[in-house]
Amino acid sequence: MNSIFGDRKTIFILLGPALLLYTLLKMVPVLWSFGLSFFEGNTLRGFDFVGIENFTTFFTDKAALQSLGVSVFFAIVATIGQVALGYGLALLYVFVLRKGSSLVRTIVFFPAILPTVAVALLFKSFVAVGDNQGPVNDIINFFGGESVEVLASTAGTMATAIVMTLWSSMGFYAVLLYAGLLDIPEEIIESARLDGANGLRLVKNIILPLSLPILLSSIIFSLNSTLKVFDSLLALNNGQPGTSTAPLTLYMYRTAFEYAEYGYGSTIALVLTILCLVFTLAIFRSQRQKAEV
Amino acid sequence: MNKLSIVIVDTPLKRFYSHVIPRIALHFVKEDVMNIHSTRSRKWLALGIVVAAALPLAACGGSGDNGGGGGGSSDGGTDPEAFTVMTANENTVIGPTLDALAADQCKAENEALPIEHQKIAQADTVQRITLLASQDALPTHTIAGTALIRPTGDLGAAGLVGDLKAALEEKDAWDNVLPAAASTVEQVYGGFVSLPYQYNIEGIFYNKQIFEELGLEEPQTWDELAEVSQELQDAGYTAMAQAGAAGFPLTRLLGMYIFRNVGPEAMQAVADGDAKLTDPEYVAGAEAIAEYAEKGYFGEGFSTRDPDATSNLFLTGKAGMAYDGTWLLSAINDPERNQIGGENVGFMPFPAVDGGKGSIDQYPANAGAPMIIAAGQFGPKVKDWVACIAENYGQQALQDTGSISGFAVNGEVSDISENTLEIQERISGIDETVLWFEALMDPKSNSLASTNGTLLTTGQMSPEDYMAALQDSIDANR
């Protein structure tokens, strides 16, 4: 067996076709889109080479910059929230609930399997006002307050979107981080306890450093998924009021498919990709610096 | 790659990599660390990226050579294998009515060229049609985007839109198109390139019973409308049920105020660059709507209310008025949805504005979503089909669904509701129509007008800013 896998030609023959197919399916569309970002037009009108004009347009386009701001804000707040809540839950599973945590784990994880659009519609009805008023305003009315049009304001829509995202994804991050915490050797925790480390001190000095890799990966997963948020904000309030909650993905979709500007749409897609890359590298770099210190 | 190698030697991260990343990936990372890269392979990589980046150039180069000009083309078409009709999922009238014609009045045309149906979500129209047209795969008779089929639009400029007027005149069937509908189609699309399967006018539907109870008269001016709205609100009703979530029901009111104030050419002047939305007489429209909304006449939660919920608000007697198009007739004629009874539904035009140049008799009109014939497939058999539709669709649609089209009704129709008859009579008496606020705008400005509508009406954007943002968009996309 060793002699077969030691042979470069055999490896090439075995891996080559699948690798080629993978490369074609993954890389060609990405590079194609990259190429399109230097053009203006669509498949019907034809394409004109415009050099870096799409990129200069992007940085003077108020709507694009607003969407960029929405994406970054949403990604940072949602990531902090879902990873922090997930980590808290994971600690709860491991150190408090212990073996009895399976039922709670399942219940908290459940929203993660629901379709995002269904969750968005659910939350939309929670905060509804008017004829089909939702429970949130019913509670406000019960305590003597006046109904609030939550989705009529940017802050209200964004807050609803973030609560919705946390509700539906914290269970997933809790399970991910729980798996990481289980990997910490019991002996280390025991010896730390014998040395007098308990509660917060144990978490800060022992658990957190040892679970850092999985925590880091969770942050990267979370940032990359929340930067690309699309369906939930679309279904919740269609990026409204105005375009104040429209993320970059929604602006990209509208540009490419509603306004038929494929070139500029590709540019926005490229900016989004670079943004994901920058965030990921920033996390890696901060971790590296920490390790070097 | 050095960054990755440093990450690998960190103790916690090494643990992560060794546990989470599959071994195969780790293998590749290690290879990177070992610096297997050579200058040659980097050159190949760079070349690959350049070639791939240039691919779209070669692949897309052939699509811009479609000749033809604006206003539609009817020459040189070749009959397809079937009369393929693509309509929106949301439209439940065109498909069944054409099937009814295929089985009866247009039987001969159907035998020569059998009808086939395709469906599409209306929101996907621009994307799908652009793609299909670029692949020379348009259905014979298809829904399209408004801006696409204008002479300057992507389909119009490429000569892909069939000239229906020429075809109908050739077949002596032009008389079957109502002049008002023909005029509306030509005004919006720059030529008669869409069959008017619907002919809608817009105005204010009101609840006669509530008006009678409160002793209210049909308002003739904007100020009177505000007074009536206040009375309705005081009596506990939603004064004007509008679907803010859709955006356009709010901008319709804004546009109508402008047409009444500035005159029927108001939006054409903006499109031609002769006037700006930031001119005071245009900003007055935005101010009027913002003020109307601020007084709460649209009711609680209007900015997130969808069109169905809005219609129900009116049809269940909770709202005194609703500005809408005559497409609402299908709901009014449906006893399950209409709980106030057809006899209690009244219709009035959008009121005049004191001192304005527009008239209360100028109704906004539209002919539904555009339905074109692909120019390349406009052969003799397709022309026969189009002529047969023009001759018979009006009667069939009115009889089967109570919907009013832009075709003449040739033949008897029985059991038509009073509401439909009233609208039909009103349409026949209209001398001049106007378009709607966004009709002549590019797709981007059109979308902006709607989406910013909720900001304007919830006080989050001033009327001046709303109009300035829209004018900027129109100028940028001119």
From TrEMBL, chain A:
Protein location: Cell membrane
Record-annotated membrane-spanning stretches: 12-34, 72-96, 108-130, 150-181, 202-223, 262-284
Entry keyword Ion transport: no
Gene Ontology CC terms, in alphabetical order: plasma membrane
Stored PANTHER family: BLL4140 PROTEIN, DIACETYLCHITOBIOSE UPTAKE SYSTEM PERMEASE PROTEIN DASB
InterPro entries hit by this protein: MetI-like, MetI-like_sf, UgpAE/MalFG_permease
Membrane-topology annotation of the record: Multi-pass membrane protein
Signal peptide per UniProt: none
Keywords: Cell membrane, Membrane, Transmembrane, Transmembrane helix, Transport
Top-level taxon: Bacteria
Protein name as catalogued: Sugar ABC transporter permease
GO aspect biological process, one term: transmembrane transport
Chain ranges of the ABC transmembrane type-1 domain: 68-283
Family assignment from sequence similarity: Belongs to the binding-protein-dependent transport system permease family.
